[in-house]
Amino acid sequence: EVQLVESGGGLIQPGGSLRLSCAASGFIVSTNYMSWVRQAPGQGLEWVSVIKSGGGTNYADSVRGRFTISRDTFKNTLSLQMDSLRAEDTAVYYCARVDYSNSFFDSWGQGTLVTVSS
Amino acid sequence: SSVLTQPPSVSVAPGKTATITCGGNNIGAKSVHWYQQKPGQAPVVVIYYDKDRPSGIPERFSGSNSGNTATLTINRVEAGDEADYYCQVWESSSDQYVFGSGTKVTVL
Predict the structure, then answer these.
(1) Among A6, A4, A23, A8, which residue's Cα sits nearest to residue A82?
(2) A5 contact B CB<8A
(3) Range 16-35 of B in CB contact (< 8 A) with A
(4) How far is CA B71 from CA A98, B36, B43, B63, B107, in A?
(5) Chain B window 49-68: which residues touch A at a Cβ cutoff of 8 Å?
(6) By CA distance, what is B36's nearest residue in A?
(7) Given A15, A69, A114, B51, which is the most exposed site by the fewest CB atoms within 10 A?
């Protein structure tokens, strides 16, 4: 059974850094495209970043240069390093697996809340 | 990147049909996927590649896509279908994933 469990969320001051992790089971992270998707309170879904099976990455314009996606092959985990955080980064962050055709998200974690506030 | 426009809300009586649209420039040329999200829960894909249903999703859910509009249809709506629904595409030009603005379906 595919399972994704996020951790690392919390309250952080503007300008600070936070690292999110996503522990995967039931499949191998490094052989799949993996993404982070976020949802601000009361708002819609926003794609954040993707890491491809070949290691390439891409980011939403709103986070490029501040966020870094990575994976740990041995631990079978996905991470998101978030620097220079802003109030508008406040959201629930979901880890999601991209399907075999790299087009949609077929499995999601339960999410972890990041609150950026002084 | 693409802008995907959805109606903010749709209200439907039990047993009737709910129709949720997702508008975008020439969206018919792209593959559209639909997610259901209930309060406090992660999204779940209900339709992928315009019209395919994952196992476990009732046949009452169907999708279509043509021209500038993709559509998610829920037949014989039940109280348990009350949720937010999002369309999504992969934008090849920017290699990014784009979500629609979301539609709240209320069962009267």
Answers:
(1) A8
(2) no
(3) 31, 33, 35
(4) 22, 14, 18, 6, 18
(5) 49, 54
(6) A45
(7) A15
